[in-house]
Specification:
about 150 residues; mainly alpha; 2 domains; globular
């Protein structure tokens, strides 16, 4: 996998950019110092886009968690070390994550939210079309959004 996806909710529009700037400055210095190299680590600049439609947020979340599966790195999203799937679908504690209000609206308690979230992925598995590399991200997003309705 050559890219990183972060789905960040913030009260300040400039916060994700500031986060990435700080991360880039500090991490690049660390890597360059540690491995006695110079230059940038990333091929391109940080890009971001706003997710304004409420149901689109969960679709983005599912899309991101299925990326390593589509890339053939793993068989199931729970296997990917850096995924939030285990927290959202299985209740695994993760200090880096705070559930979004839309995720919390999936059920009245943790168990029902996790069940509903897992069902999105079970439906995807039964549809199997998203596994094909030709499946475009927008088509996957539309499918997840329709499943959420």
């Amino acid at each position: 996998m050559t890219n990183v996806h972060l789905l960040i909710s913030t009260e300040r529009a400039e916060a994700p950019g500031a986060l990435m700037k700080g991360l880039g400055q500090r991490y690049v210095q660390y890597v360059n110092r540690t491995y006695r190299r110079s230059g940038t680590l990333w091929e391109g600049r940080f890009r971001s886009c706003l997710t304004q439609e409420e149901d689109y947020l969960l679709a983005c979340q599912c899309y991101i968690e299925l990326n390593p599966v589509r890339a053939g790195m793993i068989e199931h999203p729970a296997e990917y070390r850096w995924s939030s799937y285990r927290a959202n679908a299985q209740g695994e504690a993760d200090a880096l994550l705070k559930p979004h209000p839309l995720y919390e609206a999936l059920g009245s308690d943790s168990a029902s939210r996790q069940t509903t979230y897992r069902e999105l992925f079970v439906m995807s598995w039964s549809q199997a079309w998203w596994m094909k590399s030709a499946a475009r991200p927008t088509a996957i997003m539309r499918w997840v959004m329709s499943a959420l309705r």
